[in-house]
Amino acid sequence: MSEAAKTRLAGRLPAPLFGVCLALLVGLALVPATARAVPPPAGRAMWVWYLSRSDGGNLAALAAQAHAEGVGSVFVKSADGTNVWAQFTPALVATLHADGLHVCAWQYVYGSDPYGEAQAALSAIRDDGADCLIIDAEAEYEGRYAAAQEYLHTIRAAVGPGYPLALAPFPFADEHPSFPYSVFLGPGGAQFDLPQMYWNLIGESPAAVFRRTYTDLRIYRRMILPVGQTFGPVSAFDVEIFRGLAVRYGAPGISWWDFAWTSADTLWPAVGAPWMSPGAVAPLGYPRLGVGNSGDDVLWLQEHLATVYRAQRLTGLFGDETERYLDAFQAAHRLTVSGVTDADTWRALLRVHPVSVSWAASAASARAGDGSRLQPPPASAYLHDRGRELPELGSNETAVGGRLADPG
Predict the structure, then answer these.
(1) How far is the C-alpha of 303 from the C-alpha of 314, rounded, in Å?
(2) Rounded to 10 degrees, what is the CA torsion of 94, 100, 104, 105?
(3) Residue 79 — φ and ψ, nearest 5°?
(4) Element spanning 79, H or E
């Protein structure tokens, strides 16, 4: 959910109702409830948007509430774009560490100033001591392959390859063909994928959202840690079913939005209560791609094919060329030659390391960058967003400039 959408929701609801309606709660049944049993962002976690609205900013009370429901990590907002939020401090991190909690920073990013956004992220990591960084990248980053790469490379150059980074993206990749999943979740990117699986907002059952999200995102081979919904008209039963699905899908972590607006009577207890069995879960598939498909999933396919067939272009559009090389790949691996990515084909492709790409911000900048060293943006970067899973929450109120004020 975008920052502007969160702000509109906050403005449209009376404070008590908003308090019940907007919450992402965190729970994991596979991991012991002990706070430091696993490194973040795995385990049970709770998002904190405004610290001042989360138990009044009382860190002892916040920690006690988290421990009561087996929550081992809190994800506290540290920056909005290049704007560092004053609520994320070394004292906050040290105090919550002393209370046995992991503390991760989360940042909403826009892509217009990737270097500046990376510096804001590094402030929370290096200066404040964040245990991990969660990148909330949504519509503003669609089409921005070079910006995503610059943002990640700047952070990785400072913190190294092992520091835990997580992406909190849209859950349905095929609805967002221009979003650079393959950069954020590709080599040198985030190790963890935290899709925003808000089933009620999407208008689907928790089971349907799980199946589609995992089918779309599993090809990026990153650990998926679902982000669940406790805002809007959701029930404790649905929260417990969502937790049960996370267990069935083998998720090593789960988180919920947001600490401040979780119902103390119904939804907080559902975070820590025994999870509910979702019943039988259908086997997962893979994205079925063929001629006519387009998007970042096609680009990811092409990046793997290009390692084997150097002439394969990186366009994000599945045409005759990609079909020809996919046929050759299937024949070479003794698979059914169909020109379509079935499960066996994906498994074979994902054993191949994707080709390394240095993206240019535009075709013109690629031409200016000494020939083949920079790749122009894929044609799929210019496709329109098809996203319907996280609809706008209304237009009566809007955030100033699409950004939120630092709560101080």
Answers:
(1) 7
(2) -40
(3) -165, 150
(4) strand 73-80
What is the length of the chain? 408
Give the pLDDT confidence of 297-339 residue by residue, as tens digits.
Answer: 999 999 999 999 999 999 999 999 999 999 999 999 999 999 9
Q: Coil, strand, or helix at residue 205?
A: coil
Please name the residue that has the structure tokens 């019943």. Answer: 279
Domains, the chain, ordered by start:
3-284+389-402 (3.20.20.80), 296-382 (1.10.101)
The amino acid sitting at 404 is L
The counts of H helices and E strands in the chain are: 15, 11
Place of tokens 């599993």: 218
Q: Are strands 253-257 and 73-80 parallel, antiparallel or unpaired?
A: unpaired
Say how many CA atoms lie within 13 Å of 168 toward its Cβ. 29
Tokens of 286: 């893979």
Which amino acid does the sequence have at 11?
G
Report the alpha-carbon distance of residue 184 to residue 166 in Å, rounded: 9
Tokens of 47: 């998002």
**Backbone angles phi and psi of 304, in degrees to 5:** -75, -45
Handedness of CA 243, 249, 250, 255 (dihedral sign): negative
Contact criterion met (CB below 8 Å) for 227 and 196: yes
Looking at 218-342, list the stretches that DSSP marks H as alpha helix, in order from N- to C-terminal side: 236-248, 267-272, 296-308, 320-332
Structure tokens of 193?
């994928």
Condensed to tens digits (0 to 9), the pLDDT of residues 57-100 reads: 999 999 999 999 999 999 999 999 999 999 999 999 999 999 99
Take residue 100 and report the two structure tokens written for it. Answer: 């046995």
Amino acid at 285: G
